[in-house]
Amino acid sequence: MTPASTGASTRVDAVASVPSAPPPADETRMSPGGPGYRRMSLALFLAGVATFALLYSTQALLPLVSGDFAVSASDASWTVSAATGGLALFVLPMSALSERFGRRTVMTASLAVAVSLGLLVPFAPSLGALVALRALQGAALAGLPASATAYLAEEVTPKALVTAIGLFVAGNSVGGMSGRVITGWVAQEWGWRIAVGVIGLVAVACAVAFRLLLPAPRHFRAGSLAPRVLAGTVRRHLGNPLLRRLFAIGALFMTVFGGVYTVIGYRLTQEPFSLPQGVAGSVFLVYLVGTVSASAAGRLVGRLGRRGALYAGGATTAAGLLLSLADALPLVLLGLVLITAGFFAGHAVASSAVGRTATEGRAQAAALYQSAYYIGSSAGSAVGALAFHAGGWAGTVGVGLVAVAGVAAITLAGTRAAVRAGEVRTA
């Protein structure tokens, strides 16, 4: 998902089988230390916080949702899967709107609708109503991820692109962490409805700050909304072997992450740990590790190349999954740290690579990636919960290991294709 840094340009391409052309640089594009870069970084960081805090606001609360509505873990998990599924379904249409009406306009509208729905979620009278509201909320949020990636690809210098996208992804991790930790402690005292209401208010503040801070785009050029044009762009992206591999890698990484963090609350509040809801929610502090690993993705690619960075992310995630099988709480927490670090690093590398590879229709390329990514999240949440119901935590870990093996296989296949094409040095 993330791009490669300059240091990686002469290295082995992580998954490339076709050369990627970076967007042209000029003095009007933002770079670290330049005018507008800090405002832009903070604005998109806050947008990432709001997006993940809203999108996963019920994930740490699933045991309480199960108890309130008297439903199973797999039924309650639909409050997460519906939101990520709504995002996956609507991200491509929203990206088309951003090509016509502008990235900043679509991102602002997307956040405005999502936070409004977030203030309604605490009043859901039934599980069905809650799932429906969450699906609408996910659909509204769809305008943000693809538009943000396209905005960065257009407005930031190629050398700074990995770092800039890493900061946006870091905002995702902070949002995911803060949302889960806050809801865990608030819910312990006042219930899950008050907890998700608090997250809605936090998201409102982030959305307002985002709109005030984000610089006006300088390089956006309006495109066509004609279905034929959009279909042609999508067809070309799907015909690109490198992009197809990146889409699949994003989906598989998110399958692991979605499954683990949907189920972990159940595991920690049950035997042998039996943690209180607030303490169990605090486990999401490990998201801070994701903030660091996403921000450092550019340096990782510079040292290892894209392929090496993806292998490192996958290996770290797999090691975390295996450690989490232990019945000792410190080892479980260490496993979650490794899973989180590996996931966010891999996500940052793959997502930036999409932005760097697509030379036209960047919003559509980013949207296809985000669609695959959140399909992976929905699948991971649903399948991870089913596996937990059938085989306990070991079942969820098994699903994750299969997904990591898929990441490794796709990366290896891409590298072999690049070697055959003479695009990668074998030394």
Give structural notes.
The protein is mainly alpha-helical and 427 residues long. The chain has one domain (8-221, 238-420): Growth Hormone, Chain: A (Up-down Bundle), CATH 1.20.1250. Helices cover 75% and strands 0% of the residues. The chain has 17 helices and no strands. It has helices spanning 37-55, 62-69, 73-76, 78-101, 103-118, 127-141, 145-155, 161-190, 192-213, 227-238, 241-269, 277-282, 287-295, 297-323, 329-357, 362-391, 393-420. Helix 13 packs parallel to helix 15. It is globular, with a radius of gyration of 20 Å. The two termini are 26 Å apart. Mean pLDDT is 82; it is low at 1-25.
Essential attributes:
mainly alpha, MFS transporter, Growth Hormone, Chain: A, 75% helix, 427 residues, 17 helices
In brief:
It is built from 17 helices and no strands.
Main sheet attributes: strand count, strand direction, barrel closure: none
What is the name of the CATH topology? Growth Hormone, Chain: A
Total beta strands: 0
How confident overall, as mean pLDDT? 82
Unreliable parts: 1-25
Helix content: over 70%
Rg:
20 Å
| Helix-strand topology string | HHHHHHHHHHHHHHHHH
Pfam family, one: MFS_1
Main location: membrane
InterPro entries: MFS, MFS_dom, MFS_trans_sf, Sugar_transporter_CS
Family: Belongs to the major facilitator superfamily.
